[in-house]
Amino acid sequence: MQSRRTPRNTQNRSQIQRWYMGFKQKTGKVKPTKLLEVISREIQTRNLSRYLPIMRIEKSPKGEYYFFLAIESKGFEIPHEIAKLLKELKDIYFKLPVDKTRNCFELEQIKPMVGNAHDVTDYTNPIPYRSQTRTISESSLTLSDSNQTQPLDQERINNLSKNHEHFLYWLSAVGSGAWELFRKTCEILGLVEPKRVLRRLKLLGHITTSGNGSKWQVNPPSLLEIQSENGDRTFILHGQRSIKFLNTFRTFGFLETCNQPRGEAPPCIYFRLPSEIGYETLTQRMQEQGYSITLTPFRNIPDIATWYSNLLVVQGLLPYKFRLKKFNGQDFIDYTFQRETGFYQFFSQDIDSHPQYTFFYDQDSDQWVQGDWYGLRFWAIYQMNQGNLCAYYSEENNTLCVLFSHRWAEVYETHLVMSSGVLPRYESDTLIYQGISTDLVNELSQKLNISI
Hints:
Elements: E1 2-5, E2 16-26, H1 32-46, E3 54-58, E4 64-74, H2 80-88, H3 90-93, E5 96-97, H4 107-110, E6 114-119, E7 126-127, H5 154-174, E8 176-178, H6 179-189, H7 194-203, E9 207-209, E10 215-218, E11 222-226, E12 233-238, H8 243-250, E13 254-258, E14 268-273, H9 279-288, E15 294-295, H10 304-309, E16 312-315, E17 323-327, E18 332-335, E19 342-347, E20 357-362, E21 367-370, H11 373-384, E22 391-394, E23 399-403, H12 410-420, E24 425-427, E25 430-433, H13 438-448
Parallel strand pairs: 11-15
Antiparallel strand pairs: 1-16, 2-4, 2-5, 3-4, 3-6, 6-7, 8-10, 9-10, 11-12, 12-14, 13-14, 16-21, 17-18, 17-19, 19-20, 20-21, 22-23, 23-25, 24-25
Helix pairs in contact: 6-7
């Protein structure tokens, strides 16, 4: 099963086949582990895993070794993007093809000499060869409803905040990776519910993910100017950060940190720029110190119909192989699939208390789509009864209140959170967003077509 962007691609997937290109390398020049790391990162950075999903390296390599790239294409054609990669890295990694006339092999030809397959989206874990039907891997987008807000004392909030800050330092150093690497690192650091950790970092503008949530990438450092009570130039820092970067940044202005509610994300960093230093001067001086920083780019807010049309379409999904639950407006109930439009949870046939996947089915187009969990729930309620969706805005306090059960799609909530740099706080069954301007509220009300 695969995910891809609408509109639907009519290419016949059955024409795609997996074959291998082989190359020789010397351990004295590039060790196999280094080779795997470099190529994996290039594949992730260029988003080429759909063309080059795995590598295979010769068993017990010594002085010279062979390695093979799995290519997925029609009729042994080299995709343009892969050809570009091979050309740019040729001198170091791809200079010596195994066969100079016809460098293409099938698995059975190379299987006796190679070891495990290595997933280029998670190069730390070799995967044993096994013939099987491709399935959707675990998605970071699959959540379940949760509004647990047990009280936390200040010491606990401070400790959580430090752990999340250190995690952002690590993410900033790594730059990008697969969801599995993100999840494993959360577990090592003791950060619970990695999927929610990922979502909060996205809401705060620190990272972005691929459409199906399988890849993440840290955003470059940027500044968003906000209105200040003192009338000075105050910015919120988004994206990459490190201790050295912050220490350098501090020499040009005043940094103030503020813990997120409950400490479940890195602290918000406010930067006040003195009047005698212009923004252009700041960026120039930071570049002289080896750091690049920009203004946070303005993001267009899509209307709700456009948002839905841009969700990923999932192909090859067989709902009859799963136990299903369908959202009825308040909860998920057991359901036998009858091609009815709605928001569905997919469970394995075995006893399993947690859904494996969540998708929305549209009867008119006969399509399953994938997106952020709260967004799909919002869309389901929107389709059932748009009038049920509403929010309350206090112009006096610049706060927006949204029922937890009506939480907005990620793209809209991101605008709320990034405008203040602070996650919403919880009060009873309500999410409260602070520092929200009247202009932003009016635009969101129009785009979502709901009453505020």
